[in-house]
Write a sequence for this structure.
């Protein structure tokens, strides 16, 4: 599609924290990259409930939990899994290309 | 650069008090420790229930009910852990157990979660921390707080306010709009369950729950007020977590009953850490937090000293 955002390199796959969440900076944005059993996913790193950095949170399977209030999101589509998270988080289309994690952002 | 808010955890990581690898290790969850602890809590409750039964026809029922009450009010500690999803790895189990605890101690789980979120965001900040217990101005005020009468008045006012579909100014700030109706529903459901229980007792003529649950809860709540005061009361009303919260070193039975919540400063530093890992986190953070080695009693001696000092001014 003509108006699709371009793919951007964010981090080498080898630098990802295995089965965990890795923080990367992309321009002015903090991005969370998740290494999961079903692949790599990405979202904005700041929790949309209290603004804390999800990259310091507990990560289990496909669920990232905010370190401040323990609201949680499914990283595959961003939907809130448990309160106090009530709104979906922003996720990015993600792929791996030549050993790099790329996101559309 | 979009910036995360500064939390005690981000500070601890930035200052090197905790490494990312250590944090990861402390946060790991499993169902085993929570299920074992819950089973033991159930056994303790069964023991005190047996004591009440054995003491039924004598004055000894009062100390037995007091013991039962101490155990019952500590279900608050379990509910609190469930609010943080740190009892069980399976998230819905935290929700289920938290709801049951809330029913036992008259504290709707969803509402408590939202209130508690702001307690963690604005710990000890006057006017912003919805759970703040102010330092009593006098010995009379201190004793009144410990009687739990203001607590129960507040809780029932809150419950009925929600059942009637209303929220206070403060509650409007910390409960998301999409959850207003759910909070009202929870309060109505809780009251309906209590009414059903009382009706059930009236119909069957068996009023045992008054003696096994209601009176013990009333007798025990001052103990929980006594414990809750030790967490922050008398500490500075500032944002610094190293200052505003007190960790109390208590004996094993008390730590067991409160699910290690005596490690309160550690809990506030990293609320994602499950109860069973808090003693290990304490070893890591103990030089960076305020620790009361004399436990609850010493914390109250300090609170009373501050009240006396204040009265003299």
């Amino acid at each position: 599609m003509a108006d699709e955002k371009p793919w951007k390199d964010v981090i080498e796959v080898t630098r990802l924290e295995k089965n965990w969440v890795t923080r990367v900076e992309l321009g002015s944005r903090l991005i969370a990259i998740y290494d999961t059993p079903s692949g790599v996913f990405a979202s904005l790193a700041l929790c949309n409930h209290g603004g804390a950095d999800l990259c310091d949170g507990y990560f289990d399977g496909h669920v990232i939990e905010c370190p401040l209030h323990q609201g949680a999101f499914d990283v595959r589509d961003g939907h809130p899994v448990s309160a106090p998270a009530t709104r979906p988080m922003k996720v990015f289309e993600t792929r791996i290309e030549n050993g790099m994690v790329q996101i559309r952002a | 650069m979009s910036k995360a808010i500064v939390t005690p955890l981000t500070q601890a990581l930035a200052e090197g008090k905790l490494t990312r690898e250590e944090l990861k290790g402390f946060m790991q969850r499993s169902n085993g420790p929570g299920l074992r602890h819950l089973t033991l809590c159930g056994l303790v409750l069964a023991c005190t229930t047996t004591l009440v039964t054995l003491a039924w026809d004598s004055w000894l029922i009062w100390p037995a009910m007091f013991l039962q009450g101490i155990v019952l009010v500590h279900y608050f500690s379990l509910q609190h852990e469930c609010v943080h999803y740190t009892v069980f790895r399976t998230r819905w189990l935290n929700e289920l157990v938290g709801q049951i605890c809330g029913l036992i101690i008259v504290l709707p789980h969803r509402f408590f979660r939202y209130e508690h979120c702001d307690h963690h965001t604005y710990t000890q900040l006057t006017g912003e921390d919805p759970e703040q217990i102010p330092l009593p101005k006098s010995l009379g005020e201190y004793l009144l707080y410990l009687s739990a009468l203001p607590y129960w008045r507040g809780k029932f006012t809150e419950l009925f306010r929600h059942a009637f579909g209303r929220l206070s100014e403060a509650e409007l700030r910390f409960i998301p709009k999409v959850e207003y109706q759910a909070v009202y529903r929870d309060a109505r459901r809780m009251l309906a369950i209590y009414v059903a229980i009382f009706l059930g007792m009236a119909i069957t003529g068996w009023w045992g729950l008054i003696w096994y649950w209601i009176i013990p809860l009333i007798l025990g709540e001052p103990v929980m007020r006594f414990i809750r005061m030790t967490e922050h009361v008398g500490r500075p009303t500032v944002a610094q977590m190293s200052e505003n919260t007190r960790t109390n070193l208590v004996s094993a039975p008390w730590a067991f009953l409160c699910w290690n919540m005596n490690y309160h400063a550690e809990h506030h530093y990293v609320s994602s850490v499950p109860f069973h890992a808090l003693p290990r986190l304490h070893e890591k953070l103990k030089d960076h937090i305020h620790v009361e080695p004399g436990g609850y009693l010493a914390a109250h001696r300090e609170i009373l000293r501050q009240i006396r000092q204040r009265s003299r001014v």
